[in-house]
Amino acid sequence: MKYCSNCGASLSETDLFCNNCGAPCSNQSSPETPAGMMPSAQKKNPLPLILGIVCPIVVVLIIVALCLIIPNCSSGGSLFSFKEPINLDESVKHMFTEASIGDSVYFGEYNEKTIRWDVLTKEDDKLLLISHDILRQARYSGSLDHSDWPDSKIRDWMNNTFYDSAFTDEEKKIIVETKLTNSTGLYGSEEDFDTLDHVFCLSLDEVNTYYYNDYSRISSTTSGTNYFWWLRTPGNGNRMVIIVNEKGSVILDGMYLDNGYGGYRPAMWVDISALY
Predict the structure, then answer these.
(1) Phi/psi at 49 (nearest 5 deg)?
(2) CA nearest neighbour of 190 among 151, 158, 221
(3) Which pLDDT belongs to residue 37?
(4) What's the sign of the alpha-carbon dihedral 141, 143, 147, 150?
(5) 243 - beta bridge partners?
(6) pLDDT in tens, 188-210
(7) Rounded Cα gap, residues 233 and 203, in angstroms
């Protein structure tokens, strides 16, 4: 709007003379903005502020998601290669999760019969099992061999022939590969040595730890006849192996390793947490 420079009256844009005082107004312009007044401020764009808040939140969520994903990825696989669930019957899973020391569980198959296992101990989510029955009678090792566990024929049979035939691929997923400390026995002079085994004989120390008397150590064949069974600890001499006899007594001097009637009682650790 224009104003008269003579009297200050308001003028329209088409007025040539002031209607109030008659002064010419062709050259008049709008008055200056009064002192202390600022022109209207230009509106700010809110997008940078929004992005500044949202982007850090998105980054944090991505990091948290990766932390949750990576531990569940299968070993050596790609980022989104997750462990496959173990395909076992729900009753088997329930049996393992509810098992306590002294209970029996049924798992695997040998000679077309489901194997019965005794629970010797439970540590966190792991169970130590031993076959309730003597599953096989055979030599501990050859007649010219030494009584050391690593090179024995019984170890080879348990971790190859038996392991491969008794368990399915799904069942093998819960069997733990265990690091064993193998003593040279009461009469040995060599240092102890370690092995990695899925299935094994108990040692003298383990038998003394997990069994409380002779009666609890007695075992029989699947036909019901009591026999002695092999431990993996050498006895008195490099061709002797400590045994548990048919009455459950531990014979420290041992039995000759080429005795063909020695009982095989496989033992193993299973990981319950791997079921879920």
Answers:
(1) -65, -40
(2) 151
(3) 45
(4) negative
(5) 230, 251
(6) 545 567 899 999 999 999 999 99
(7) 5
Amino acid at 210: Y
pLDDT digits (tens, 9 = 90+) for 45-69: 777 777 778 777 888 888 877 766 5
Sign of CA dihedral 193, 151, 177, 216: negative
What confidence tens digit (pLDDT) does each residue in 76-91 have?
Answer: 443 333 445 566 778 8
Q: What are phi and psi of 196, to 5 degrees?
A: -110, 120
**What sections of the chain are H helices per DSSP?**
47-69, 90-98, 153-156, 163-166, 169-172, 204-210, 214-217
Residue written as token pair 């002192």:
35
d(CA 108, CA 116): 9
Round to whole Å and give the CA distance between 260 and 155: 15
**Cα distance between residue 30 and residue 137, in whole Å:** 117
Buried b or exposed e, range 102-137, using 16+ CB within 10 angstroms? eeebebbebeeeebebbbbeeeeebbbbbbbbbbbb
Q: Which region, left, alpha or beta, applies to residue 208 given φ > 0 means left and ψ of -120 to 50 means alpha?
A: alpha
CB-CB contact of 137 with 262 (8 Å): yes
Whole-number pLDDT of residue 217: 97
Region 153-171 average pLDDT: 96
Determine if the pTM surpasses 0.85: no
